[in-house]
Write a structure and sequence with these properties.
- By secondary structure, the chain is α+β, with helices and mostly antiparallel strands.
- The chain folds into two domains: about 220 residues, 2-Layer Sandwich (Enolase-like, domain 1), CATH 3.30.390; about 120 residues, no CATH class.
- It has twelve helices and eight strands.
- β1 and β2 form a beta hairpin.
- The longest helix has 28 residues.
- The radius of gyration is 24 Å and the shape is globular.
Length: about 350
């Protein structure tokens, strides 16, 4: 039941597709292969793992229903498909930067309480290893008479192991929200995620408070007019684009004008992110810029060991006179790798 470190299932949305397309370039500056991560790098990676998923990959599961005091209503909680988890791990560490291993065992038959049926349980344990950060394991379970017991238990175990690193842990803060259901028991509206449950809000320092997850009374009605699902999706899509745009704009100072504008021009053929209206393309630009920022930090760390003189001939070999002239991720990667090799040679001498 061991899966390849990638998507396990059908194709995901455009945003995930764009992230996969840019993996080969954008993960250049994940954890250095075979290198010992510094405490600062570990802190940075853990912080990125803890950031909530974008709202577009969030789905809602009905956990309870009631018909008291009016129409049929359901209690829903948010969750993300395991593809969202693998996308985050691949973007931060590359598919080669982490592994997962599954073990399966079953319990003895026993009588189930809700229907008195004698049945066994399937238990799947996932051991997740992120090179440089460590390993965590967790277990998922399912009833053996369920055809999807193994698949469900595997996904549950993987997500629980991810949460030990902080990935997806924020979803455990939700206790449930009541919404109206249609005749097929599907939510007629999508709950609004709190600011802290979005990437932008989390990066701004917002965190869950006890009142954020309090369940409304099952018979209560919203204070504002309801929006259709189409309207809500449109609002969410615009909100995500605005959020990603803000994150890209925040990268201007740490990257410098040359690299910042170079990435925008190369990837999106624009000078400012507000000229981009495609959410998937915006996400691709952001992933590249985050990777470039990690590359610059690695460059600074290597310079502390080698001194600036070691960098000069490397820059000149790429027709650059200074770091500020670097305008592509590929050039930055080649320069960082060359300087780190010099650093390693100096340490061995």
């Amino acid at each position: 039941m061991t899966a390849i470190n990638g998507h396990a299932g059908a194709s995901a949305n455009n945003q995930a597709d764009a992230a996969r397309e840019s993996v080969s370039t954008a993960v250049m500056f994940g954890a250095p292969a075979g290198a010992q991560l510094t405490p600062e790098m570990i802190k940075e990676f853990v912080a990125e793992l803890e950031v909530p998923f974008t709202p577009s990959v969030i789905e809602w599961r009905i956990t309870n229903t009631t018909k008291a005091n009016g129409p049929l209503r359901g209690q829903v909680i948010p969750y993300a498909d395991q593809r969202a988890y693998t996308d985050r791990l691949n973007a931060l560490f590359s598919p080669a930067g982490w592994t997962r291993k599954y073990t399966v065992h079953t319990s003895a038959n026993f009588q189930r309480n809700n229907d008195d049926k004698v049945v066994a349980k399937v238990f799947v344990t996932c051991e997740l290893t992120i090179f440089g950060l460590g390993s965590h394991s967790a277990t998922g379970e399912g009833w053996a008479d369920d055809d999807n017991a193994g698949t469900a238990a595997e996904a549950q175990a993987f997500k629980r192991a991810c949460s030990c690193f902080g990935l997806g842990r924020y979803l455990y803060y939700f206790t449930g929200t009541w919404v109206d259901l249609d005749e097929r028991k599907r939510p007629t509206t999508t709950p609004q995620l709190a600011g802290w449950a979005t990437p932008h809000g989390w990066r701004e320092g917002l965190r869950p408070q006890p009142s954020d997850n309090r369940m409304p009374d099952a018979g209560s009605s919203p204070k504002s007019p309801k929006k259709t699902l189409i309207q809500q999706k449109q609002d969410a899509s615009q909100g995500e684009r605005d959020e990603v745009t803000r994150q890209i704009e925040a990268m201007a100072e740490p990257l410098g004008k040359g690299l910042y504008r170079g990435l925008l021009k190369t990837l999106a053929r624009v000078w400012t992110p507000r000229e981009v209206h495609d959410a998937a393309l915006l996400q691709k630009v952001l992933v590249h810029m985050q990777s470039a920022n990690r590359g610059l930090r690695r460059l600074e760390a290597a310079l502390q060991q080698t001194g600036p003189k070691a960098l000069t001939p490397i820059l000149r070999s790429h027709d650059f006179n200074s770091v500020s002239q670097i305008n592509t991720l590929e050039a930055l990667h080649e320069i960082v790798v060359a300087l780190e090799r010099k650093m390693e040679c100096g340490l061995r001498e």
